[in-house]
C-alpha cells in the first residue's frame, strides 16, 4: 500500500475540468472546525461570491455539501409534494434524471420530450401550459451536457412565469462559463456544480432560491421527505442570521477550494469568462474543421464549453479515447445513453479552456489517427 499520486491529465471531458494550482493550494490549508467563528465568516464570503456568480440578490444562496445531482434533488423535493404537477423539459440525460426524481417523490410530472441534440422548444412549453391546469413548476436544463445543447432559459422561465409556475433551472454546466442572470431572468430555483466552469473539485453544488420559491416551500402541507435536503433544516446552518447550529459537518477544505475558484473567476471577471469560453470555442471550431470533425449540434444552440463531436465511423470509439488518455494524458467524454458510441464530448471549461489544450487535442488526434 502506498500514497496515491494521480497522473497529470488534461481534463477535456464533461467535468471535472482542470483545477488550478491556486485552488489546489487552497484545498491544502488547515482544516478548522465548521462552527469556528472565522469559518462562519468565510461561509458568508462564499455565499456573497456565489451571489455575484449567479447574479442574484437571493438571500438563500449557498453551496450544498453534495454534487450537482443532489442539488437537482433538493430543488425538486423541496418545491414538490405528492401529486403536485410539474412540467419537465427533456432533451438529454439530465432532464430525464429530473423526471426520475419527480416520479420517486410521487409528484405528477408532465414530461416534454425533445429530440436529443436539439434545444427545448418554447412553443411546445407554452402550448402545454395552456392546456394543463395547476402546474406548480417547470424544470429545464440550461446547458445539456449529454448532448452539448444550450436552451433559452430566460425565455422558457418567462413562459413558466406567465402561467404562474415556478422555474427550476439546472445550470451545472453553464454557471461561470455562459451568460446566466438569475435575477434579471427571474429564475426561481437554480443549481450548479463546482467541477465544470468553476474549475473547483467536484462534490459541492451551489444553489439559489428566489423569494417566491421560499414562500412556496414554506406553504408545504407535508414535511420535505428528505432529511438532508430539507431547506428549512439546512438553513439553520447556512442562513447567516446570527448563530448557527449543527446540521452536518461541512466539507471544510472543499469549501476553501470553491471559495478560491470563485475569487479566481471574479479576478478574471464573470463576463470576461463568458467571452473567453466563446473565443476558445471558436478557435476549437476552426481546428475541428481543419481535421474534418463535425459538430453534432447546429450552430446557434451549441454550448461553447461542451462540444459534442460526431465520431467518424472509421475510428474505434473506445480505442481512440483509451489512446488519448494513456498515450497523451487527455481525457474526453463518451456519448451517454442513446448517444453512446455516436459522439465525443469535449469540454473546454474553466481552467481547461485554453488554446494550448485545443492544440494538444488536435496534435494527439493526428498522431492516433494517421
Ligand atoms: N446536471 C447536468 C447538466 C450535469 O452535467 C451534471 C453532471 O455532469 C449533473 C446535473 C449532475 O451533477 P453531478 O455529477 O455533480 O452529480
Explain what you see:
The protein has 370 residues and is α/β, with parallel strands linked by helices. It has helices spanning 21-27, 37-54, 68-79, 93-104, 122-131, 153-162, 211-218, 231-238, 252-268, 270-290, 317-328, 355-369, and strands at residues 10-12, 60-64, 85-90, 108-113, 135-141, 143-144, 149-150, 166-170, 189-191, 205-209, 306-310, 330-334, 343-347. The strands form three sheets. It has a seven-stranded mixed β-sheet with strand order 2-10-9-8-5-3-4, with helices on both faces. Strands 1-12-13-11 form a four-stranded mixed β-sheet. The longest helix is centred in the C-terminal third of the chain and has 21 residues, at 270-290. The radius of gyration is 21 Å and the shape is globular. Pyridoxal-5'-phosphate binds at residues 14-15, 67-69, 72, 94, 141, 145, 170, 172-173, 193, 202.
Key terms for this structure?
370 residues, alpha/beta, 7-stranded mixed beta sheet, 13 strands, 41% helix, binds pyridoxal-5'-phosphate
Walk me through the topology.
Layout: E1 10-12, H1 21-27, H2 37-54, E2 60-64, H3 68-79, E3 85-90, H4 93-104, E4 108-113, H5 122-131, E5 135-141, E6 143-144, E7 149-150, H6 153-162, E8 166-170, E9 189-191, E10 205-209, H7 211-218, H8 231-238, H9 252-268, H10 270-290, E11 306-310, H11 317-328, E12 330-334, E13 343-347, H12 355-369
Parallel strand pairs: 1-12, 3-4, 3-5, 5-8, 8-9
Antiparallel strand pairs: 2-10, 6-7, 9-10, 11-13, 12-13
The structure holds pyridoxal-5'-phosphate (PLP).
